[in-house]
Amino acid sequence: MSRSAGRNGPIVFVGGEAPSMTAVSGRPAEEDVRELFGQSVAVFASLAGSAHVVEAANPAFVAAVGEERVRAGVPLGDVLPQDFRALLDRVFRTGEPGTARDVGIVPATGSPGLFDFTCEPRRDGSGEVVGVRVIGVEVTQVKHAQRLMSEHRALLEQIARQAPLAEVLDGMARCIEELAPDEVLVSVLLADADGLHLRHGAAPSLPDFYNEAIDGIATGEGVGSCGTAAHRREPVMVADIGTDPFWDDFRGLAGRAGLAACWSTPILARDGGLLGTFAMYHRTPRAPQDTDLALARVFAGTAALAIERHHIEQAKAAAEALAKAAHDELARAVRAEQKLRAEAEERAAAAAELNAQIRAAAATQAAKPHPEHCQLGGAGGCTAAAEIKIADSWGDAAWGCPTHVEEAIINVRSVFIASEELGGLAAYVNR
């Protein structure tokens, strides 16, 4: 294991040597962009004759075309693209300079490259064209970076128009996989709210069984590349999964998925909170170069922007839902209060009407003459004086003598003394 300390924190390299770098984290985004564009490689060659055989060339040109081809004197017309051969032929034939852009050269060994060329005629002492002088600049890395930046801008536009998070992350992973010079498999894991577990976010090229197995892994020291990077809040670059102790619990799983290296970068919010991890897997053991680290930082920052925007939208939606629920509850309370008030008003009106009826009945009763004799004597009648007024719960009233009134009170449960002059039943009982 080796470490390379940056200005704001270390990057950990496991199973391989750390590549040189000027900074590791916290560096301005412009520096990462310059790193992605890289330094241009200038090539030069002096070609002879109409077959365009290399007479002299700088080491960069020899490396681009292939050392064996140059030494063997193979005419460039046999190994270069047809359009570029036509340009060389035209410059040799007319003596007029020409240019060609994005010329692809496939060397005998190594990776193909793209070049911008300027071709000028070579003349002898008599002015006769005897060859072509070729000056070029390799633009392979620049073209890749330009395409990556174009895709990056498209991702930012998706985030700005609030595209679904899964769509943004999946698109980001695919564009990196398609445009990276070397094969890479991208994975984004999202942190739970407590920061203790990582959930599947996007990994379009990793096997489903692998994504399912690591969905929900804990964050912690030695939990693979991603769990450790999330725990440390710093990049963890495992160059060889087969020998690294961080992968002891996942080595068999990685072997089944055909994974040999994993470089993981934590995705952090602006306040330093953990949002997730951005990982780049490789099929063969490999340590990252400066351009790989710059690429990881650029897109980890993009993922952070997308995830934070998603969290903000979620919080906004939750707040709006709570506000709507509170508004609906208040509306229900107002309607219930209005209903209770209406019912109270109805009861008050009914009570007022009943009181009016009672007063009217009392006035009617008061207007009737007081009977002279007891009205409770039954069929035989009673000639005793009517002294006491009684009534029942139905409102029927009668006057009677004390004897018959007492019998009525004892035998009829609902009867009560109604004579105000006597002070009611209590006064009568206590007489």
Summary?
This protein has 431 residues and is α+β, with helices and mostly antiparallel strands. It has helices at 29-37, 59-65, 67-72, 82-94, 140-160, 165-179, 208-214, 224-232, 251-257, 290-367, 402-411, 424-429, and strands at residues 2-5, 10-14, 41-48, 53-57, 98-105, 113-123, 129-138, 185-191, 197-202, 217-218, 236-238, 261-268, 274-282, 388-391, 397-400, 416-417.
What does this structure look like?
This protein is α+β, with helices and mostly antiparallel strands and 431 residues long. It has 3 domains: 2-35 and 143-314, GAF domain (Beta-Lactamase); 41-138, Beta-Lactamase (2-Layer Sandwich), CATH 3.30.450.20; 369-429, no CATH class. The protein has helices at residues 29-37, 59-65, 67-72, 82-94, 140-160, 165-179, 208-214, 224-232, 251-257, 290-367, 402-411, 424-429, and strands spanning 2-5, 10-14, 41-48, 53-57, 98-105, 113-123, 129-138, 185-191, 197-202, 217-218, 236-238, 261-268, 274-282, 388-391, 397-400, 416-417. The strands form 3 sheets. The chain has an 8-stranded mixed sheet with strand order 1-2-11-12-13-8-9-10. A 5-stranded antiparallel sheet has the order 4-3-7-6-5, with helices on both faces. A 3-stranded antiparallel sheet has the order 15-14-16. The chain is rod-shaped.
Give the number of domains.
3
Q: Which strand-content bin applies to the residues?
A: 15-25%
**Uncertain residue segments:** 1-25, 424-429
Give the H and E element order. EEHEEHHHEEEHHEEHEHEHEEHEEHEH
The CATH C-level class name of the largest domain: Alpha Beta
Specify the number of helices: 12
User: What is the name of the CATH topology of the largest domain?
Assistant: Beta-Lactamase
Which structural category fits the helices and strands? alpha+beta
The value of Rg in angstroms is: 49 Å
Q: Major sheet: size, sense and barrel closure?
A: 8 strands, mixed
**Outline:** rod-shaped
The count of β-strands is: 16
Distance between the termini: 113 Å
